[in-house]
Write a structure and sequence with these properties.
By secondary structure, this protein is of the alpha/beta class. It is 38% helix and 15% strand. It contains ten helices and twelve strands. It has an eight-stranded parallel barrel with strand order 1-2-3-4-7-8-9-12. The protein has a two-stranded antiparallel ribbon with strand order 5-6. Helix 8 packs across helix 9.
Length: 365
């Protein structure tokens, strides 16, 4: 059953994933960044990184991104892991919390991967139950991220976008739209990436992820690998543009997990995301103004009276108005030397005697 949650407060701008090589520099430089995102599992204990995050939380809005809840597990989420996540959320008070539409636990063994689900009613009931458990424990909305896929179940009765839309309707969860994952999955499984985005409920999308991917050649086939190890490629920027044009600005994260570059590279990618979003919104406003200007102006309203239906009081009112003498109007002096003959009141049927150009005075009629 759907729940109501407090609206999100994180800014609709670009942030970066906080990685350990950049923590010290973030504390000393305090560079301009919309917000930070961390992996929840890295902050479930104590240590220097946890202490640093408490300081950074006072400077930047924070998002917590989980990778270990295994929302697709038929046995339910791990209670101990969920309690650790709860303590992380209570300690750092993040503005966003997210997890993946995946499973990664089997018979108590944690697998080092995010594995896809079969998209059918049985799996939907399992995931919905697990999401309800997580949101009830954390007492907040959780955003569910679409997966990067390399295989699909032949007996799925719906696609991933339909599955996610129904999950939102049943649980009140939000969505984390990973645009790079959409591109990777759409290429590997041969479906329309833009159609996938269009099928998602736009109002439920609370965050967007951008990242790079690797290209592998397997025989005659090209396979995209979601490795988060390079700049955002042009094809993902194009898909991001389509998403923003459809749903509007959203908090957008630059993910980079392998071959992590210097901090300024991540900040530069975030800057490009902000600039692209600003350009899209500016173009939308310009188009709206042009459309408004192109609309024909409404004709002035004319009062039409049919002689058969016009009452005598109306005719009498018009006759009285026509016969009423026009009283002279004394205009106040105006600076700037504007001759009174340029004023509409000086036009016929009145005649005005005007003073010279720069010696304007009230006229008499």
């Amino acid at each position: 059953m759907s729940r109501a949650f407090q609206p999100l407060t994180i800014p609709a701008s670009a942030g970066i994933g906080l990685r350990s090589p950049h923590i010290s520099e973030m504390l000393t430089r305090r560079p301009s960044a919309g917000w930070l995102e961390v992996h929840a599992e890295n902050y479930m204990g104590d240590g220097a990184g946890v202490d640093a995050l408490e300081k950074l939380r006072e400077i930047y809005p924070l998002s917590v991104h989980g990778v270990g809840l295994s929302l697709g597990s038929a046995r339910g989420v791990d209670h101990d892991h969920l309690q650790r996540l709860r303590r992380v959320c209570e300690r750092f008070q993040p503005d966003l919390v997210s997890e993946h539409l995946a499973w990664s636990v089997a018979d108590g063994a944690y697998l080092n991967d995010l594995l896809p689900l079969r998209y059918d009613e049985e799996a939907l009931a399992i995931v919905a139950r697990n999401v309800e458990t997580v949101q009830g424990t954390l007492k907040r909305q959780v955003l569910i991220e679409n997966l990067s896929a390399y295989v699909a179940f032949a007996d799925s009765s719906m696609n991933e976008a339909e599955f996610l839309a129904e999950l939102v309707a049943r649980t009140g969860c939000g969505l984390l739209l990973d645009v790079n994952n959409v591109q990777v999955s759409a290429h590997n499984l041969q479906y329309d990436a833009k159609a996938f985005i269009d099928a998602l409920p736009a109002g439920s999308i609370g965050e967007i992820h951008l990242a790079g991917h690797a290209t592998n050649q397997v025989g005659a086939d090209t396979v995209l690998i979601d490795d988060h190890g390079s700049r955002v490629p042009p094809v993902v920027w194009t898909l991001y543009q389509h998403a923003i044009d459809r749903i509007g600005p959203r908090p957008t994260l630059i993910e980079w997990d392998t071959d992590v570059p210097v901090l300024d590279v991540l900040l530069g990618e975030a800057m490009w995301a902000d600039m692209l979003t600003a350009s899209i919104m500016f173009s939308r406003k310009q188009a709206a103004r042009q459309a408004a200007a192109a609309k024909p102006r409404p004709m002035p309203t004319l009062l039409c009276f049919e002689s058969a239906r016009t009452s005598m009081p109306v005719l009498a009112a018009f006759a009285a108005a026509k016969a009423r003498p026009v009283m002279p109007v004394a205009l106040p002096p105006m600076e700037g030397g504007i001759p009174c003959c340029r004023l509409s009141i000086c036009r016929p049927p009145w005649r005005a005697r005007c003073s010279p150009w720069n010696q304007w005075s009230p006229r008499t009629c």
